[in-house]
Structure formats: structure tokens, C-alpha cells
Amino acid sequence: MSLEGRRSVPAWKTIAVAALAAAFLPASIFALHSAFGPGFGDAGTAKVTGLNDGAEGTGRTGGTESNAGAGTGVAGRTEVLPSPRADGRMRKAPATGTSAAGLEEGAAALPGMSADGAPPMEGGAGEVSGDGGKSRCGKEDDAALVEKLSEIAGRLRPLHVPLGKPGPHDWLARHREPGQTFREYVASRPTLPRGRRTVIFIQPIGGFGKEQWRIVGLTAEYLGICFHLPVRTRDAVPLDSIPARARRVHPAWGDRQILTGYILEEVLKPHLPDDAAACLGLTASDLWPGEGWNFVFGQASLSERVGVWSLYRNGDPAAGEEGFRLYLLRTLKTAAHETGHMFSMLHCTAWECNMCGSNHREESDRRPLWECPECMAKICWAAGAAPAERYRRLAAFCAASGLEKERAFYEKSFKLLEGREK
Description:
This protein is of the alpha/beta class. Helices cover 28% and strands 13% of the residues. The chain has a single domain (11-132, 166-383), classed as Collagenase (Catalytic Domain) (3-Layer(aba) Sandwich). The strands form 5 sheets. Strands 7-9-8-12-15-14 form a 6-stranded mixed sheet, sandwiched between helices. The protein has a 3-stranded mixed sheet with strand order 10-11-13. A two-stranded antiparallel sheet has the order 1-6. The longest helix is centred in the last third of the chain and has 23 residues, at 320-342. The chain starts with 32 loop residues before the first strand and ends in a 5-residue tail after the last helix. Residues 1-140 have low confidence and may be disordered.
């Protein structure tokens, strides 16, 4: 594919956050979801160049846009690219990434940024779900727990599909990543929901439609089960509180966008709750990370317990039951993937797994909601969840939400662990 307009990027900047080298942890790192594809659209053509390649991307259709290249639509999971300052200008900082974007032709990669926090809100905070992260899989010491979870992961492997050879436009065809086993994760000194920091906060930013609010509530519920932690949704930050310097209208597509650096540094960073394991800004508005970029799906730090992501490109939740379920599934995947990054989980390179990187919408949609055995063990070790009970509760959530494929998988998993299925 054409590399026209591509700038050279230092090697450390091309490591995917979910593919961060252990040497960078626990430095401030951001997960950047990348998308590259031909795009199909009605909003003009923008020639863009990402770290993937330098082909043209065109406007938006059906809630998706392309960024840079000849893949399939947009989508994303994480590519490490540096993030901007709050004013969108260049700045030096640790390795970063952001979610789904493309560089404008000839633009340099955006520098990194550290961020943490959530703004204080008046009332309305509601605990949605979770168990506080205090229980463990028994009273074993940590070494024994690692052995136990490793054994459980081994029993689950027959239910999982090894990751095959990537397609020409898939994530691993474009990015060399070492992956991360459960034992490597334990040894990496990850950011964990431990001590007083045992609550996931969701910080809505701007307005949401009725169906989108349903998605927010269901996402909070799912995260509480998935990560075995209480989840609290805060009162929304009004969109009109974001100043003009942190907004733009995309020059080619006409999309109104919010600067991620502003959200991270000036909305979320100053007031991270003392008990926050993670604070996730969530908006229905489009996002862009600053100078040289078209858009991002979101940004999340693996060490600072903070991130922001957007529902803007997930489809239409009001388009009937099927449209709602697709919107929900895409949101759950992104939410769980980003939260995994915030607990220092790198991209999975061994199995079909929600922690796999994705370069475009089709690749993202084909990845499962569930984690592979290794990534499941990371979550259960980090948050003190019992695998069988976690799978049971995830199955119940999916049954209630009309996610039949996911329900069947989670049910098969807990039955296997309980000895009821071989």
C-alpha cells in the first residue's frame, strides 16, 4: 500500500498500547484505537495518513468513518500513538495511544500526555454493580493463586479459538506485538484495583438520547460484572462547558468534535476520586486527539486510571432491536477492552479475544466479547474474581440483554469449570 505522506516514527512510538513493552510500564500510556479503510461516504474525501499506511480515506456512512488505508471501515482497538496537550499542540511525553484515528497527510505523530481524574459532580452518583474487588478465589497466598488461575486457564483452552493468520489489513499484519501471558502480566507490576482504589467511575460528557442512556447503564452493569468491581455513573458534564479551544468542526466531514486532551487534562485529571480504580469519560460526541488527526474512538491510560471514549461511531441504537444489540455489543467491547488497558493489560496475540488489537470495523466486529483464558486469568487475579461465578453472572447479563452467542459461550464456560460439561 502507498506510504505517501508518512513520517518516520521512533520505534518506541509504534508500540501498541495494548502492546506496550514491559519496559514502559507503569509509565503513562494511552490506548489508541486505530482504524484504516476505504470508507464510503457522503461527506467528501479527506486524504489522511496513519501509522498504518498512507492511502486515502473517505467520509462517513452508517456511523463509521475511515481514516487511512484500504481496510474495511473504521473501528478499532489500540494503536500506540502519542496524544496531545489540552490545546491540541505537540508535546513530549511518555508513549501513548488512542482509539481509532488517522493522521492527516504529512502530519507527525502526536506527543504523549499523562492524565487522570474525574470532575466533582453534584448528586446523582449511583452504584450500578460489582462486588468491591475484595474477595479472592480462596485464601491462598498470591503464588498459589497464580497457580490456581493458570490451571483454570488451561482447562478453558478447548473452548477458545487460536488467533489465525491476520488478513492484509488486520492489526497484526501492521503491528509487531509480543503479546502478554498471564504470568508475564503478574510479573509486570501492573496498575491494579487494589487498596482504596476499587471503584470504576463512568463520567458522561454531554447529552445522550434515550437509547444511548440505556446503553450507558448496561455498560456500567457489564463492567461491574466483568471486572468484579462497583461501578458508579456520575452526573453528566454539560457539553457547553467545553470551551471553543477544545472543539472543532472536521474540515472535510463536517463532524463536530471534542479534543481528547482537554477532557483528559482539564475535565478528568484534576479530581480523580480517591477510591477510583478507573475513571472513564463517555460521550456521544465525536473525538479527535489534536493536530494532524481526523478522529479517535477514545483514549485510555494504562497507568493513570483515566480515559475517554465515544459512542459516536457505534451505529444507531434506535434502529430496532437488532440495531440496539449491535450498538450495545460494540460499546461493551470497547469499554471492557479499554478498562483492561487501564489495568495494564496488553493486546492479546494468541487467541480470538476482546483484548486483541483491531485496525478496522470488520476486524473489531469479528472479535468476541469474551477474553481468552490468559486475559481472563489477568482480570480474576487483578480484581479477585472467581472465574466460574464471573462467567455465570456474565451469562445472565447476556441472556437479559439478548446477546445469545455471548450467553452461550459464558454458560459453557462456567459449566465446564463446574464439571457439568466436557
